Amino acid sequence: MKIGILGGGVAGLSTAIALKQQGFEVEVFERRKSTTQIGAGIVCWPNASFVLEQLGLLDEIESVAGIPTQMIRYSSEGDQLGSLDINELNQLMAYKSYSILRKDLMEVLTSSALKSGVTIRYNHKVRSIKTGANQKANVIFDNGQQIRPDLIIGADGRMQSIARQYVNQDNKPVFQNFVNWIGVFESQEALFPSLSIKDYWGVGSRFGVVPVSATKAYWAGGLACDSIGEKNPETYSDELLSLFHQWPEPITKIINGTPQHQINKIYVHDHHPIKAWHKNNVIVIGDAAHSPLPTSGQGACQALEDSYQLAKIFREYKLLQNTDKVPQFFEHFTELRMSKTTGITLAGRQLANSIFNTDPEFCIQRNLASKKVDYRATILGMAKGWSDALPLNV
User: Which InterPro entries does the protein's record reference (predicted)?
Assistant: First the structure.
């Protein structure tokens, strides 16, 4: 069976590795000129670490990642609103959590894919997908090339997924009324000795810092906004300083210490959950299927889970020898993944609506409520939810 994967991000590459390990002929088609490095960093929570271990990549990840110890929530004035013990979460789920720069994660995935024999074809932007003979799809690229593999896996992201358009007849993402500035900060000074994630909440604004080492962290500053505005990279630092200059340190130090050209500005979108992830011989995964907001903490983690569950069901259905079971495989995979990813998408929206609420009185009450949260129960809920459908025995 020949498998074509559209998109060389986390979902596409991890799935390519998992399927190549089973003996499938896999090609990845990526629209960019090289491996994508969009995004500052991610936390691979224990559910993602489990998948990375199954792929044989956990040791490589650990060599370039940090192990955060706790997540502390503050008000924009520096008042502590609560803390979550990440070590306890790790113990419940039997795997560590890793903070990692996205570029480092992508380098590990790309290197592993190439070493395993996966072909990655860059400069292949999908123009269209059309149904051909025997209800098999043809993929046409902007460069004029076409492919017609036995199975097409659409992992082409949230913003312009042609695979989602083919499956769902619509691929328009939903703007969620906030903007993020993101970047990576490095220093000679050990500003993050405990590797604690720090999350500061204001009125309609937020600043989060995730250490990767004692001297390095990725960060995001967010602001509620009603519409999508202009993006001028030359003004990003000034925009951030105008918003956060009175917030607790080290926020100003982080903004000033991040080179202007390494700051990105993203008007944040997700997708409404959809009921069908497949059509004919095309199935969508990752952000093309379910694209939670950054507030979910699970975007890349769920992309990795897709790769694990996809490969597991491939093996159960023995698709290497029997392609007739592809329709049943599609149904099984969608049924397995739909509920969990939908819940994560909706939870991410709920948290974003709270964080980026612009009513001062609401934010006062929100912060007071945060101080009263039973974070031990929160950890247990996270462990149970994130381990769903995985053999983690929580």
Answer: FAD-bd (IPR002938), FAD-dep_Monooxygenase_BioMet (IPR050493), FAD/NAD-bd_sf (IPR036188)
In a domain, 221, yes or no: no
Residue 233 lies in a domain: no
Confirm whether 392 is domain-assigned. Answer: no
- The residues near 169 (Cβ < 8 Å, ≥ 6 apart) are none
In this prediction the pTM is 0.97
Tokens linked to 66 = 């940090």
Q: How many domains is the chain built from?
A: 1
Max CA separation in the chain (angstroms):
64
What's the CA gap between 153 and 117, in Å, rounded?
A: 18
CATH of the domain at 320: 3.50.50.60
Quickly state the pLDDT bin for 218 (edges 50, 70, 90). very high
In which domain, by residue range, is 285 found? 2-174+270-386
Structure confidence at residue 236 as a pLDDT band (50, 70, 90): very high
Q: What pLDDT score was predicted for residue 299?
A: 97
Average pLDDT over residues 340-361: 98
Mean pLDDT for all residues in the chain: 97
Residue 28, in any domain of the structure? yes
